[in-house]
Structure formats: structure tokens, C-alpha cells
Design brief:
- The chain has helices at residues 2-35, 39-44, 60-82, 86-103, 108-121, 137-145, 163-168.
- Helix content is 58%, strand content 0%.
- The longest helix has 34 residues, at 2-35.
- It is an all-alpha fold and 190 residues long.
- The protein has a domain at 2-121.
Length: 190
């Protein structure tokens, strides 16, 4: 899931960057058109000199800088998603997209996918850490009480009879029965 959310974050950030570049170049191109004397043509389609400012009276170029910064933070948030930092990525995506929308309200159109990916990023979390299991004194006693499984006896290897083996084997000495000590009779005693 995190790879899909990362990909969506990259796409949403690319869309925001594209809109930022459009606004930056749009402001310059409108100003150039008015300088070159094409203002009459632009006025016919209801574009005036004041069209270079947004609803908040901030020029499109200044708004474009904010949108481009938001797109850069969106790319950073996509890396955070890849490294399983979903909550931090969600904060970056949502806050920067809403901030760009406050400066340039038209940029909310491009910011909505980033906000959606920000909410998806909340579901991306780190891997759970398994704490080491501590052994209690009670656990040790329980383990001692359990019968241990006996290992299975190993099968004896089959003997291969060779003539050489018979020669090498030495006969084992037989156990002798205890002999009673003999009384030694002296001839002098008789």
C-alpha cells in the first residue's frame, strides 16, 4: 500500500509543480502581451492588467512560488511515505496544499489530490516492534516441570563385512572368574 500511496503522492506533487510553473509563466506572458501592444485583443476576451493578480491581490508569480514550495514539500512527503512515516507525510501534504490554496485559491484544484493523498498517508505506519520477551521466575519453573522430549536414537550403520576388517578386529579378553587363593603349604610345617 505504501508504494501506491507514494506513487500517488509523486503524481499529486507533479501536478502542483506543473500548476506552479503555469502560473509563473502565465504572469510573465500576460505582462509581455500588454507591453507589446496586444492589450486590445486581450481585453476582448476579458483579460486585463488586473488579471495578473489572484482573488487575494497577490500576483500569480508570487502565488506560483508558494505552489512550487508546496510541490517540493509534496515530493519530500512522498519519500516519507516510502520510509513508513505516514503521519509526518500527511502533515506535509495537507498543510502545504492548504497554505498554497490560501495564497492562490485557484491552486486548490491542483491541491485536492495532494490533500487526498495526505489522508491516505495516515494509514501508512511503521512496522510494529516486538519487544523482547522477558522470562519470569514462574516461567522457568514451568519449563522445568515439563518433560523434555527425548531424542530419537540414531540408527546404527549397517556393517559391511570385508576380509580386512576381520583381520583388524582383535578378540576381546574373556572375563576370568575370581580364583581362590591357594594355600601354600610349607614342608617345614608338616
Amino acid at each position: 500500500m505504501r508504494f501506491l500511496v507514494c506513487l500517488l503522492g509523486l503524481l499529486a506533487s507533479s501536478l502542483m509543480a506543473g500548476v506552479g510553473v503555469f502560473f509563473m509563466l502565465g504572469d510573465v506572458s500576460l505582462a509581455w502581451c500588454f507591453e507589446q501592444g496586444h492589450g486590445d485583443l486581450l481585453r476582448e476576451i476579458y483579460i486585463t492588467e488586473s488579471s495578473t493578480e489572484s482573488l487575494t491581490n497577490i500576483s500569480f508569480a508570487n502565488g506560483a512560488l508558494v505552489i512550487l514550495v508546496a510541490a517540493a514539500y509534496g515530493f519530500l512527503a512522498s519519500l516519507f511515505i516510502l520510509f513508513r512515516c505516514g503521519k509526518q507525510a500527511a502533515a506535509l501534504l495537507i498543510v502545504t496544499a492548504l497554505g498554497a490554496g490560501l495564497v492562490q485559491p485557484v491552486s486548490l484544484i491542483a491541491g485536492l489530490p495532494a490533500i487526498f493523498v495526505g489522508f491516505l498517508a495516515l494509514f501508512v505506519g511503521p512496522l510494529p516492534l516486538n519487544p523482547p520477551q522477558e522470562k519470569d521466575a514462574d516461567d522457568d519453573e514451568e519449563e522445568e516441570e515439563k518433560p523434555k522430549a527425548k531424542p530419537k536414537p540414531m540408527p546404527k550403520p549397517a556393517k559391511v563385512e570385508d576380509e580386512d576388517e576381520e583381520e583388524e578386529e582383535m578378540p576381546k579378553p574373556k572375563a576370568k572368574a575370581k580364583a581362590k587363593p591357594k594355600k601354600v603349604v610349607d614342608e617345614d610345617d608338616e
